[in-house]
Amino acid sequence: MIREYFSNDTLTSLILFSILLLLILKKIDSEIFYDNLQLRKKKLLGKLYNNDFISFRFVNIVYLFVFLINLSVLLTIFSNGEFNLKIFQNNFYHIGLFIFLKYLLEKFIGWLFKFNRICNNYLNAKLFYFNTLGTLVLFLNILSVFSESFNQELVYVSLTIILLYLIISHFTIFFSFKNLIYKNWFYFILYLCTLEIIPYYYIISNIINV
């Protein structure tokens, strides 16, 4: 099994390309790079608590690209038992489209209900957590695919870690808006179901059943 993975030039190239991108990003902005290595983002949470403006930077798109590549790789191995380029491309397209459309929809809702600043901070905070997750998934891919003791259980453990990280990061961000949520708990539950739980369940179930 391990020889099959090492002999897969496309898979190896994707992982090496991801590492190269991270090294370039470290050179471009080392502060963001080291911030992304922190699982608990004190600086980001401080800005959320104080309602400070969280700016969007172009490097975040590249970090998101790293996340999309490595999550697609892991889901391909999970659903197919080995790496397959066609399934990888399909996963990459659908996950990327899902994140992009969801981002646009949430921006539109923020504009429609005139809470642009809060919406901007919320979306950019999620993006920072995705940046960290991209580095984490890359590490899990290296561990799962190229470990001498490779087994399918490592992939399941990796996906469990990713899911737990997503849940914890979302609730950490939600806690930063606790005062707003307390005053509008009904709309928060409505948002949670319609724009978080249902869309994630839909995209995950579709990818797993590919």
Describe this structure as you would to a colleague.
The chain has ten helices and no strands. It has one domain (2-208). Mean pLDDT is 80; it is low at 1-7. It has 210 residues and is mostly helical. Helix 7 (116-146) runs antiparallel to helix 8. The protein is globular, with a radius of gyration of 18 Å. The longest helix has 31 residues, at 116-146.
Distance between the termini: 22 Å
Radius of gyration: 18 Å
User: How many extended strands?
Assistant: 0
Order of helices and strands: HHHHHHHHHH
Structural class: mainly alpha
The number of distinct structural domains comes to 1
Strand content: under 5%
Bin the helical content.
over 70%
Mean pLDDT: 80
Biggest beta sheet attributes: none
Low-confidence stretches: 1-7
Number of helices: 10
**C-alpha geometry:** globular
